[in-house]
Amino acid sequence: MSGRELLRKILSGLAVTVFRPRITGLSQLPKYGPFILAANHLSFSDHVFLTLFVPRPLYFVGKAERLGRRGVRGRLSGLFFRGIGMIPVRRDGGRGGVAALELSRERIERGLSVGIHPEGTRSPDGRLYRGHTGAAWLSLATGAPVVPCGLVGTDQVQSPGRLLFKRVRFGVHFGQPLRPDRYAGREELSLTRRQFTDEIMRQIQVLSGQELVPRFAVKGQAIEAGRAGTARTSAPAGGPR
Predict the structure, then answer these.
(1) Is residue 28 a contact partner of residue 109, using CB atoms and an 8 Å limit?
(2) Where do the structural domains in the chain lie, given as residue ranges?
(3) What does the alpha-carbon distance between residue 85 and residue 57 come to, in Å, rounded to a whole number?
């Protein structure tokens, strides 16, 4: 057993004991061959939990800043994300995203599996936002199926802008794999990537129960919303008018 797998098993057992998550659909995950896990994004903790609960090695795409933070917490965080094999993406809206997709493609072609949050950033208000086409592109380029996943309540475990986790039950629901075969012959078309992405997002919506918003989420908006909520709850009752 590799050091990475041993770390995953230990942390997975600890997370199950502490949070008692409701996990459904594990049988939907392919037992052999690569796949792409596409999940909604409510909390910083989302891809941590998914990496722990998926019983096969899963390499999640995450923002590169997490690997270079300073201080003791920052270094420990960087060690953890390197340990679980995070694929770093520089969110510059261009070459950084392309480089992360190419790294993801290399892993898939080696028979490994990759996790992506198609929204690209955390939801600012708990709704499900329009998906970017990276997961669909990977599937169409490699033939690997996409497994949709709906997360429920992880924003209560760790709200945006908060460091500490709360001991709250949450749900992780895996859906039936979506295969790119139906788009054969049209893989290179941008319209095909959009159609496949919209199909993926509809399945995530079914699993998560969220309202689907027909626009993209804005980077950083979830953290700002979390800070605003903290400020409101910490303000004294009957404050200035």
Answers:
(1) no
(2) 3-232
(3) 9
Name residue 39's beta-bridge partners.
Answer: 149
Best CA proximity match to 58, nearest among 113, 19, 1: 113
pTM of the model as a whole: 0.83
Please give the pLDDT value at position 100.
85
Helix or strand run (H / E) with residue 89: strand 87-89
Residue 99 has pLDDT above 90, yes or no: no
Beta bridge partners of 196: none
Q: Which fold has domain 3-232?
A: Glycerol-3-phosphate (1)-acyltransferase (3.40.1130)
Helix/strand/coil for 88:
strand
Tell me: the pLDDT tens digits for 200-237?
999 999 999 999 999 999 976 654 555 555 444 444 33
Quote the CA–CA distance of 113 and 240 in Å, as a whole number.
54
Residue 202 to residue 197: CA distance in whole angstroms: 9
Question: What are the tens digits of pLDDT across the range 118-166?
Answer: 999 999 999 999 999 999 999 999 999 999 999 999 999 987 777 778 9
146-152 and 36-39 as β-strands: parallel, antiparallel, unpaired? Answer: parallel
Asked if residue 43 lies in contact with residue 158, where contact means CB atoms within 8 angstroms, the answer is: yes
Is 105 in contact with 136 (CB distance < 8 Å)?
Answer: no
103-108 contact pairs (CB < 8 A, 24+): 104/59, 104/61, 104/134, 104/138, 105/138, 105/141, 105/142, 107/34, 107/59, 108/34, 108/36, 108/138, 108/142, 108/144
